[in-house]
Amino acid sequence: MKKNLINLPADYQLKTIHIALTDSTLLPVSVIGSGKPVMLLHAYGMDAREFLPFIFPLLGKYAFYLPHLRGFGVAKDIKLTQFDFVRQYADDINIVIKQICLARNIESLPVAAISMGAQVMWAYFERYGSAKVSRYMNIDQSPAIHNQSDWQGGLFGSRQQEVFDIFHEVIDRTLPYADMESFTHLPFALKRRATDVERLFSLLSVNRTRSKAFIQVMTYKNDPKLALYDHSIWHHKMRCLQAYLTLPYDFRGALERVTIPVVNLIGGRSKLYDAKWQKKITQMLPNATEVVLPRSGHAIPMDEPVGFYKVLKGFLQD
Hints:
By secondary structure, this protein is an alpha/beta fold.
């Protein structure tokens, strides 16, 4: 019988709980630590467990709840039942927050969310208010995705149409294969194009040279590797991207009702959401402060891991 070399203390043992949603789906939530409960929401394409390096030093003070949104991470096999995935995620998170509060006998808990996870929280606040959230940290995310006459702070800023056209092209090429679950069976040229566009998105998300180098190394696949690549969430990512391009996501109307303390964490060189427009979000919120990490792009934990940890720690101690 194989034994672990080290028996980890209880605080450092990661476990998974499952929370029943309104459609009886069991959503996996990774839980680690002891103390006050905190919820962290992950980004598009991210596994919730990628937060672990940043929260290990805090596990003695806080119990972190890390939901895996449908189609990603441990929940990669759980399908969406609505095209409007952001609102479906918001409905799911409403149940998760209620269940955590009930289980821990608390009225509310702090929430930090990044990118798509933060978009989900804007939708959550619009639909359910902020009574169950004691404080919120918004990590580099605008409440409005599409540029409009009164808002040029949407996704990719001034390059929005250029990048959206690239996304539309890839989606149009993949539509004939919408019923094909296996990425391996797609035409090779389409697989190359799809993975190249994914890499483009990842590279636009970072600013630091080391982050770009890491992405290049981790995402490039030569022809033999790509031929056998089993991209298990490709279909889900395309579906989410299609909704982003199609639906008029704009939750600015909910901001004035988010009266809880908010920390607006901004990547000073974010290519996804212009820092100038993100600062306007701080002004629109009734009780917000902002922190700008001047050398960071959109993916703040990757570009500025130490800075991100310090801001998260400070947010939780307030």
